[in-house]
Amino acid sequence: MGERARSPVPRRLREARDHLGISQRELGVRAGLDPASASTRINQYERGRHAPDYGTLAALARILGRPVAFFYAEDDGLAALICRYEAGAS
């Protein structure tokens, strides 16, 4: 069957968080996660160990200033295009 498909979400999440310059804990707390586990949960999302549900990803996207579709874009060019489109639509 070949290699299991990897989700682009972990990499996009880390990329957006690093761009904003906030810690995993701060992102989680700002998105409404329990402060005691916020850092651990974001770390697991960024490592691909667990995937955020759509509602959680939407909250993270809002904090990070990215459209939800950005996190699912496999291609870097498409991810950039999604962000430019969203910026132009506002």
Question: Could you walk me through the main structural features you see in this protein, from its secondary elements to its overall organization?
Answer:
The protein is mostly helical and 90 residues long. It contains six helices and no strands. Helix 2 crosses helix 3 (38-47). The protein is globular, with a radius of gyration of 13 Å.
Please tell me how large the radius of gyration is: 13 Å
- Mean pLDDT value: 93
Structural class, by secondary structure, is mainly alpha
Give the total of beta strands: 0
> Could you give the order of the helices and strands?
HHHHHH
Beta-strand fraction estimate: under 5%
Low-confidence stretches: none
- Global morphology: globular
Major β-sheet profile = none
Distance separating the two termini: 43 Å
Discrete helix count: 6
> Based on the structure, what is the oligomeric state of the protein chains?
single chain
In a few lines, what is going on in this structure?
This protein has 90 residues and is mostly helical. 66% of the residues lie in helices and 0% in strands. The mean pLDDT is 93.
Structural topology:
Layout (H helix, E strand, L loop, with lengths): L8 H12 L3 H7 L7 H10 L6 H11 L3 H5 L3 H14 L1
Main features:
globular; 66% helix; 6 helices; mainly alpha; 90 residues
